[in-house]
Amino acid sequence: PLGFFAAAEVARDRLRAPLLARGLFLAYGDQAPSEPWVAKALLAALETSSEEGDRAWIRGRLEAFPDSPYVLAAHGGSAAGFAQLEEELDVRLRELTRE
């Protein structure tokens, strides 16, 4: 499932395809609901969504992750474990994409 996340970042950052990125971030969340990066993927999907109804739906999905370091950081709160999650994600994505 982390391949969805990697592909979403490529679609967003390199291809400049926000709708594709949004779909891939959401697919990651659907396929790996217990992974610690789901909230990050949902936040990224939120950023790539322009329709308010879509944004409200994604915000609703984010409510399932009130204690996620990503959600806490997005709301300006203290986010213990944030740096560790980012480092682990970076390692796993580099392994996956062989960068």
Helix-strand layout with pairing:
Elements: H1 2-13, H2 18-31, H3 38-47, H4 52-62, H5 69-74, H6 82-97
Helix pairs in contact: 1-2, 1-6, 2-3, 3-4
Order of helices and strands: HHHHHH
What is the residue-mean pLDDT, rounded to a whole number?
95
Helical stretch tally = 6
Main β sheet profile? none
Overall body shape:
globular
Explain how this protein is built:
The structure is a single chain. The protein is mostly helical. It is built from 6 helices and no strands.
Distinctive features:
99 residues, 70% helix, mainly alpha, 6 helices, globular
Quickly describe the structure.
The chain has helices spanning 2-13, 18-31, 38-47, 52-62, 69-74, 82-97. It is mainly α and 99 residues long.
